[in-house]
Amino acid sequence: MMASVDDVEAQFYEALQRGDIERLMAAWSDDDEVACVHPGGPRIVGHSAVRASFDAIFANGPIPVRLQQVRRVANAGCSVHHVLERVDISTAEGPQTAWVLATNVYFKTTLGWRLVLHHASPGSQREAQEIVADAPSTLH
Length: 140
Description:
Blueprint: H1 5-18, H2 21-26, E1 35-37, E2 43-45, H3 47-58, E3 65-74, E4 78-91, E5 94-109, E6 112-122
Parallel strand pairs: 1-6
Antiparallel strand pairs: 1-2, 3-4, 4-5, 5-6
């Protein structure tokens, strides 16, 4: 059993870096309602579908991703992490950096903390500089 939500998050990102599907899926809840959205992709629902999506990604090798920033909102049974991911890749034009904004949602289950949602969107380097408002505002 993973002791903390941070242990699960570390396992998830280490598995991405290694291309280790078994370790990656061990971080996920086995609930059929888990969901994942890869940058620019559709919503993928269900443990099997999420696994298949990462199998397809890992067919191209591991993902050289590192967390740059993590913001947490948590209570006793749920923890929501909004993260900035840095992905360094080699291209024909040389080394490139891609930025991804992701939200990871974890539930505390009978087996310990598990990932239930990973939603990633393309980002840019400017997201590395956060905008923090002093007063609440309505966005929608």
